[in-house]
Design brief:
The protein is 27% helix and 13% strand. By secondary structure, it is α+β, with helices and mostly antiparallel strands. The chain has one domain. The two termini are 20 Å apart.
């Protein structure tokens, strides 16, 4: 996520990368289903195993919080509860 953090010494907008993470590990397909349900949409999610380096990295945990990540105490379901 990109968030503005104020102004630098020259008055330009400054920003930083912030990668908050939740306290749970979940399947991407389950997150898609939960997001659709929170938005009131009906969605059929069919998980598939894709070949290649990027899908393999995702299966190995590339989307999980890295060491030193800010762990947000809210669950994904709690965050979705704020979606309107």
């Amino acid at each position: 996520m990109r968030h503005r953090t104020g102004r630098d010494s020259r008055g330009r907008a400054a920003s930083s990368d912030r990668r908050p993470a939740g306290p749970e590990k979940q399947l991407l397909a389950d997150l898609c289903r939960a997001t659709a349900a929170a938005r009131g949409k009906r969605l059929v999610v069919i998980p598939v195993w894709l070949p290649g380096a990027t899908p393999r990295r995702i299966r190995e945990g590339a989307l999980q919080a890295p060491p030193g990540a800010v762990i947000d105490g809210r669950t994904f379901a709690e965050v979705l509860g704020q979606v309107r």
